[in-house]
Design goal:
Blueprint: H1 3-14, H2 19-24, E1 29-30, E2 41-42, H3 63-67, H4 72-95, H5 131-146, E3 157-161, E4 175-176, H6 180-187, H7 189-196, E5 201-204, E6 208-209, E7 212-213, H8 218-228, E8 234-237, H9 241-247, H10 255-264, H11 278-283, H12 289-305, H13 326-339, E9 341-345, E10 359-363, H14 371-374, H15 387-394, E11 399-403, H16 423-431, E12 435-441, E13 458-459, E14 462-463, H17 470-482, E15 486-491, H18 500-505, E16 508-511, H19 519-528, H20 560-563, E17 581-591, E18 595-604, E19 610-620, E20 631-640, E21 645-653, E22 659-660, E23 666-667, E24 673-678, H21 684-690, E25 695-698
Parallel strand pairs: 3-5, 4-6, 5-8, 10-11, 10-12, 12-15, 15-16
Antiparallel strand pairs: 1-2, 6-7, 9-16, 13-14, 17-18, 18-21, 19-20, 19-24, 22-23, 24-25
Length: about 700
């Protein structure tokens, strides 16, 4: 079915509804209209890394982890599996007349906000800090979710539009103030690219941007999204965001006025209950029936594109047995292995011999945590393999001891319920071990969405510091005192510094993110050399004492690798491997008005098969406007056997080679443009950590 056919059928169906019926269909929990043969439908479903909150499904690594693959094709495969499992569930939900929340085909994912500040608790839901990487991974994810058939396999939704990344505690009334330069260079590109590639939906954010609530923003919604970008899909509010318009932003005085200003800004669907007041707004002449009708037609265009009203629904042959099946688990494990990042490997301490009979201690609050595998916005897998489980499976001859050693944050003398002071137990295991795997980090109870919990470490899900929580730092420091061979594994969705003592003492340091239900097995495979590290950082990792800008300041100065002041601890784009790749002969081989094409020879000169993440960065000099230090503009994942060499072709969209002026317009840069091609960013820290430099192409 073409979009135009779906639109015409939607118009015909909506034309048969009364005003009251049309208004009822603009709520996320849309009721049935039995006289027209319309079943109830709940629009709210989640699927950022697996079908969420509705029974068994494959739990893939969280979005920030998937971003570390730098591999759009792999992300597209993952998203295709998510929509396959979504259809399998939907087929049975319809069969058994279950129209509850989280049972539909409209997934409110991906989150393509820019992870501009490492303290933001929801950064784990994003594809990282870079507009280009977020754009290409977001487009691949959306294509995988929506499919390329006659009907939408499922409907994706780019969120949260726009300029949204904390603070969580004040998000319902916060005004994110940004310049047009930062708006168009950093905050809007991923939305523009995903909209123009055909995403079905866009979700508005809770906050205001430059004074106007995002879900009723006359400029962002009417001018930018609808008029300039030509978006004809549906716009949905974040959940409860329309109530914020009058309750927290005080942008209107009444609920009816809030509903009216949102509808006039073409917000079609309300996750919440504010659109109950649309009937009052209509009766008060704040809105017209034509505006109500237009919104209803847009949401029903999506429902027709999903095939809801077909005699034989599309994809109805996908069986329930597809959920977390063998093939999907294999992809899950592969993805987890590719997303985990090796930050340090002193004197090639890793890999460990999987047949060794050494004493291995697995110590730390995330050593046996299922929650730290899941992240947030997660489903429920049929099988979980924690870090301790994975090490037991792979290192079958080792003598393995497991202790938590500490809680995430809380530290106090033990009490009758136990599990408060576990330090001595963790040290006992580490002191008698040949190797200690120290599994530290956070989970969604510490960093996450508006947790409502404040303490010395977190503010409603946002971190107050870039260091480990004090109780874990105490454990880590003490373990380093009693064990010579320590491997640190960080499981979290953001930048965390384990401190200089631990960094210097540890033989290896690994960032494992929230790696999905099979993350523990993936990590063990990497530790043993059954798999080869290849993940790259989609965010900058900072020293704990790095002078960060104010969290509430949305100016990009001093933020991310593109505008950082000083040096990163571990830079964006960095990650070690068990093998080594060499680059040569980088050159420009073609150009059009829209693209540049570059070529480079990449050779695996190490002793192990591996995947290299080829990266191209642009650098501007003598520009009339602020430009990034470097801007990622092309990526490609390349698998090479030991000794194998390949010629790699990368196409660069000139969009990413433009300078952005103060008015937001993109122009050709004034000065010299240089491209850098390699396995990392061309900064001095990456060069020093890897012992390699990027190939240079001067244009």
């Amino acid at each position: 079915m073409t979009k135009n056919e779906a639109r015409q059928r939607a118009k015909a169906l909506v034309a048969q509804m009364t005003v009251e019926e049309k208004i009822s269909q603009l709520l996320y929990n849309s009721p049935a209209i039995e006289r027209l043969g319309i079943c109830e439908y709940n629009w709210w479903n989640e699927g950022s890394h697996g079908v969420a909150r509705a029974g068994t499904a494959t739990v893939f690594p969280h979005a920030i982890a998937m971003a570390a693959t730098f591999d759009p094709e792999l992300i597209g495969e993952v998203a295709d599996v998510i929509s396959t499992e979504g259809r399998a569930k939907y087929n049975k939900h319809v069969q058994f007349k279950d129209y509850d929340i989280f049972k539909g085909l409209t997934f409110w994912a991906p989150n393509i906000n820019i992870f501009r500040d490492p303290r933001w608790g929801r950064g784990q839901e994003t594809f990282g800090e870079d507009p280009f990487l977020t754009s290409v991974l977001g487009q691949a994810f959306i294509k995988g979710i929506q499919g390329d058939g006659e009907f939408l396999k499922a409907a994706a939704c780019s969120k949260h539009f726009a300029v949204h990344s904390g603070p969580e505690k004040t998000r319902h009334g916060f005004d994110a103030k940004t310049s047009l330069h930062d708006l168009y260079e950093t905050y809007l590109p991923a939305f523009e690219k995903t909209v123009k590639s055909g995403v079905a939906g866009v979700m508005g954010a809770y906050n205001r941007t430059n004074g106007e609530p995002c879900c009723a923003h006359s400029y962002l919604l009417n001018e930018v999204l609808r008029k300039n970008w030509g978006f004809d899909g549906y716009i949905v509010s974040d959940c409860g965001a329309l109530a914020d318009i009058y309750k927290d932003h005080h942008f209107t005085e009444t609920k009816a006025e809030a509903a009216a200003v949102a509808l006039k800004s073409t917000c079609d669907l309300n996750c919440g209950e504010t659109y109950d007041a649309l009937i009052d707004a209509y009766e008060q002449d704040l809105i017209t029936e034509e505006e109500i009708t237009a919104a209803a037609e847009r949401v029903y265009t999506i429902r027709h594109l999903l095939g809801e009203f077909e005699e034989v629904r599309p994809y109805s042959d996908i069986p329930y047995s597809k959920l977390d099946c063998k093939e999907h688990k294999e992809l899950n494990l592969k993805t987890a292995e590719q997303c985990i990042v090796l930050l340090k490997n002193e004197d090639s301490f890793l890999p460990l011999n999987k047949d060794c009979s050494k004493r291995i201690a697995v110590v730390g609050p995330n050593s046996q945590s299922v929650t730290a595998l899941e992240g947030n916005y997660n489903g429920y897998a049929s099988e979980y393999v924690t870090v301790a489980d994975g090490i037991r499976r792979v290192f079958k001859n080792a003598d393995i001891t497991v202790e938590r050693g500490s809680n995430y944050c809380a530290e106090q003398p033990n009490h009758w319920s136990g599990f408060m002071n576990m330090l001595s137990d963790g040290l006992a295991a580490a002191s008698e071990a040949d190797i200690t795997i120290l599994v530290l980090g956070l989970d969604c109870s510490v960093e996450g969405e508006d947790t409502g919990f404040d303490d010395d470490y977190t503010a409603c899900g946002d971190k107050r510091t870039l260091y480990l929580p004090a109780t874990q730092q105490k454990l880590a420091d003490a373990v380093c005192d009693v064990c010579d061979n320590v491997v640190v594994v960080l499981m979290c969705g953001s930048s965390i510094d384990v401190g200089e003592k631990v960094r210097n003492h540890a033989k290896a340091i690994i960032h494992a993110w929230y790696p999905g239900s099979l993350g523990g097995l993936a990590l063990a495979n990497l530790l043993s050399g059954e798999a080869c590290f290849g993940g790259k950082l989609p965010v900058t990792l900072y020293r704990g004492d790095h002078d960060m800008p104010n969290f509430e300041d949305y100016d990009m100065s001093g933020r991310t690798y593109r505008y950082i002041n000083g040096d990163a601890l571990y830079p964006f784009g960095y990650g070690l491997s068990y093998t080594e790749f060499a680059y040569e002969n980088a050159k420009l081989i073609g150009e059009t008005d829209d693209t540049l094409t570059v070529s480079v020879d990449v050779a695996n000169i190490g002793g192990m098969k591996g995947i290299e993440r080829v990266q191209v960065y642009a650098s501007f000099t003598d520009s009339r406007t602020p430009t990034p230090h470097y801007q990622l503009c092309a990526v490609k994942a390349v698998e090479l056997d030991a000794g194998e060499k390949a010629n790699i072709i990368l196409e660069i969209d000139r969009y990413w080679l433009k300078a952005v002026l103060d008015d937001g317009s993109r122009v050709d840069p004034d000065g010299k443009l240089t491209l850098y091609v390699g396995g990392h960013q061309p900064d001095n820290v990456s060069n020093a950590l890897t012992g390699s430099v990027c190939e240079k192409i001067e244009l």
